[in-house]
Write a structure and sequence with these properties.
Length: about 90
């Protein structure tokens, strides 16, 4: 291969790489935000379960509960407690 072909292929590869990074940056930011909120929700569930002897309220520590509390916040915590109360 000559130098022109190598430079052309390198330019195309760099352009495709830049396009894919730009294309996938928004979903990756959203996924990172959801992950951070889920970790905060897990912390809220840990605090709720630590206060369980005093309040009588407890929820299971799992990924679904953490995601609901992390994404929805306090209303999500209330929703999970309401669902637990209905089914028990």
């Amino acid at each position: 291969m000559d130098v022109k072909t190598i430079l052309l292929l390198t330019g195309v590869a760099v352009g495709l790489l830049a396009l894919s990074v730009r294309l996938f940056s928004a979903p990756l930011k959203l996924a990172l935000k959801v992950l951070c909120n889920t970790l905060l929700g897990l912390g809220a569930l840990l605090l709720l379960n630590a206060a369980a002897p005093f309040t009588g309220l407890s929820l299971g520590l799992n990924l679904f509960n953490a995601a609901v509390v992390g994404v929805l916040g306090i209303p999500g915590l209330g929703l999970l407690l309401l669902v637990q109360w209905i089914f028990t």
